[in-house]
Amino acid sequence: MRTRPTDLPRGLLSALWITVLMQIVFRDIHQFISPGFIDEISRGVYQGSAITQWHFLFGGVILQLPIWMIALCHALPDRTLVLLHRALAPVVLAMSFLAWPTDPDDWFHIAMQGVALAAMVALSFPGRRRTAVA
User: Fold this and answer.
1) What DSSP element (H or E) covers 71?
2) pTM greater than 0.85
3) How large is the greatest C-alpha to C-alpha distance in the chain, in angstroms?
4) How do residues 48-90 score in pLDDT, each as one tens digit?
5) Residue 132: helix, strand or coil by DSSP?
6) Which residues contact 67 (CB under 8 A, 6 or more apart)?
């Protein structure tokens, strides 16, 4: 009997992108409720650096990556999806460090995000997928 790789586990990949998105959202919620954060942002400063509307726009664009990948996991061909996962996983993780983590819960959310992104990359290698009898 010959075996062939099955399709990518698109539902699982989509769920992992949702996990990444939720980690980003919950980290941001924790930041918003920390004392002085809203005052600092409204003054145009974050962690001692000046921020502008362009910074907020950039953050919004970066946030679109996991949002779009949730849907694209179900629409793109396998080869394109594999390449996108291998390219975007390190980019999205690196973007988590643009606002340097300031407390343990930030590190926890980044670690969980890293686990989900690593799982996506691992699933993109053919040897990691299930095989089906042809």
Assistant:
1) helix 53-72
2) no
3) 67
4) 788 888 888 988 888 899 999 999 999 999 889 999 999 999 9
5) strand
6) 21
- What would the two tokens of residue 84 be? 């996108």
Q: In the block, which residue shows the tokens 């399709």?
A: 7
Identify any residues that bridge with 133 across adjacent strands, giving them in sequence order.
3
CA distances from 88 to 17, 57, 60, 115 (A): 11, 19, 16, 14
Beta strands in the chain (DSSP E): 3-5, 45-46, 49-50, 131-133
For 91-104, how does the pLDDT look when each residue is reduced to its tens digit (9 = 90+)?
Answer: 999 988 887 888 89
Q: Where are the chain's structural domains? A: 12-124
**CA gap 83, 97 in Å, rounded:** 23
Q: What is the CA angle 114-116-117, rounded to 5?
A: 65
Residue 29 CB coordination number (10 Å): 11
C-beta separation of 19 from 112 below 8 A = yes
